């Protein structure tokens, strides 16, 4: 009886020790992790060993419970596994593997198994969610009447149900423009049909507007409806430009005083400066008036008053600066003086040419006479 009882106690102690051993030989691994698509990602597991235990092998299983990688610690040559993963450096009793480039198929639960001697294997699990962000171009500008392309992209088309593009006007009104859903054609809302197109892609979405109208200005939201992660969106804003076509007009207001107007209709309003013969000095400050037009453009009039005498001496130009132009447009006021100058130059050139040909003729005739004389003289001397 005594022997039996002590045996029981012994067994109980053994059991407790074994359970403690189980606890001590625990594997710690993060339960859930988010891995950005198309980037490398490292998974880590660590084991806490009991005294006397040795780590013989570490194995990693992928989402299908297939061996992803296995190795014997301290032996680099023992590493074997799939090509898209590699062993990362890690502290003792920790194992780290790196997925070189995370893809949609890498989503799922990974198991790390530590084979301990003599106690057996301990395992841990980490579940990976592959994520992506919606990326957009920077804000854009388009010239009215031309074409504008707005792009959005999301790295996990497999998770996308549909893409919706919305337009929010500068006044805050929001309307749907177009959408594209899995297994269907791009849909363009009636007000936009014929001048808006949407690419048939669930990853790289491109909204094209041609011709761009002033009302197309505002911000566009591309919204990706994803299964697991809900809606994901991003915003890109479009500014529409109307380029200026400046004109200059002038009239004499009183004797010897001319009033000149430089006018430009554009969006956004142009900046007008006057330039006097490569010098930017203006003769008296010009007066600028801005008149907003009903269609979103602005008429800018810059009025300059000058002494009529100045116009004869120097070139007066109106320079129109606009965000949509690479260089300012220059309109000269001295068109009449310009033509007079051209005529003067032409007349001078013709006169000069005439004089030159006359000189040439005279010189040639003179030389020929001389030449004839020499020839004749020589002939006569030979005859003699
Ligand atoms: C992998 O094994 C675990 C148990 O170890 C199981 O719960 C899971 O369903 C298995 N996964 C697959 C894809 O077979
Ligand atoms: C784009 O434009 C909007 C509104 O015009 C502005 O709030 C936002 O900061 C701009 N974004 C960038 C990246 O310039
Ligand atoms: C210039 O514009 C003003 C209006 O801002 C107008 O009253 C004036 O007649 C214009 N002058 C010329 C020369 O066109
Ligand atoms: C005008 O010209 C002066 C020198 O001639 C220069 O210092 C100044 O920056 C110029 N202003 C502009 C607006 O170009």
TrEMBL record:
Coiled coil: none annotated. GO terms for biological process: heterotypic cell-cell adhesion; negative regulation of neuroinflammatory response. Its main location: membrane. This is Zgc:113337. It is a single-pass membrane protein. The keyword Oxidoreductase does not apply. It comes from the Eukaryota. GO terms for cellular component: axon; cell surface; membrane; neuronal cell body. It is found in: Membrane. One of its GO terms (molecular function) is cell-cell adhesion mediator activity. The keyword Electron transport does not apply. The chain crosses the membrane at residues 337-363. Residues 1-25 form the signal peptide. InterPro entries: Ig-like_dom, Ig-like_dom_sf, Ig-like_fold, Ig_sub, Ig_V-set, OX2G-like.
